[in-house]
Amino acid sequence: MFLRSLARPLMAKIKETTGIVGLEVVPNAREVLIGLYSKTLNEIQKVPEDEGYRKAVESFTNHRLKVCQEEQDWDKIESRLGCGQVEELIEEAKDELKLISYMIEWDPWGIPDDHEIEMIENDAPIPKHVPQHRPPPLPKEFQETLEALMSQPGKTEQLEALVSKSIKESSAANSTEEPSKP
Known about the structure:
Layout: H1 2-11, H2 29-43, H3 52-70, H4 74-81, H5 86-106, H6 140-151, H7 155-176
Helix pairs in contact: 2-3, 2-5
Subcellular location: Mitochondrion inner membrane
Membrane topology: Peripheral membrane protein
Protein name: Probable NADH dehydrogenase [ubiquinone] 1 alpha subcomplex subunit 5, mitochondrial
C-alpha cells in the first residue's frame, strides 16, 4: 500500500508529443493553465461589467479554471473540456490575454451617447453577377398543401387557432423557465 502511494505520481501518463508541429509538450500544463486563467479573470475586470465580451470571457474562463482545479491529469482535463490539447489551451489563453489588452486599448464600448453615424445610401442598381441572397422558393409540396388547406371551409380558422395556441404556450413556457446560467 505504501509503495502504491509513492509510485502513483510516477505511473501517471506522460505525454511524449502533441503531434502538432511547433507545439511542444508542457509537462506542468495544469498549473500553467490555472495561472493563465486566473490572470485572465483579473485582467477582464478592467472591461465594463455590462459588456458581452467580458461576460463571455468570464463564463468560459471560469468553466475551464474549475475543470483544471478539479482534475489532476492532463488527459482528463482535455476530455472534459473537449477543446483540444492542454498545450493548445495554453496558447488560446495567452492569445486571450493579448486580446483583452487590445480591447482595453481600443475601447470599442466607449462610444459617446451623442455620437451620430452618417448613413450613406446608394441607389445604384446591383450588378447581375453579385448575389442578392434571396431565399429559395418554397417547395411545390408546401404550396399544394397550403392550397388544399385553404380550399376547405373552416380550416383557416382552425389553423389560426392552432398557431395562436402554440404561440401562447411557448411564451408561457418561456416565462416560467428560470434563466439559464452560463
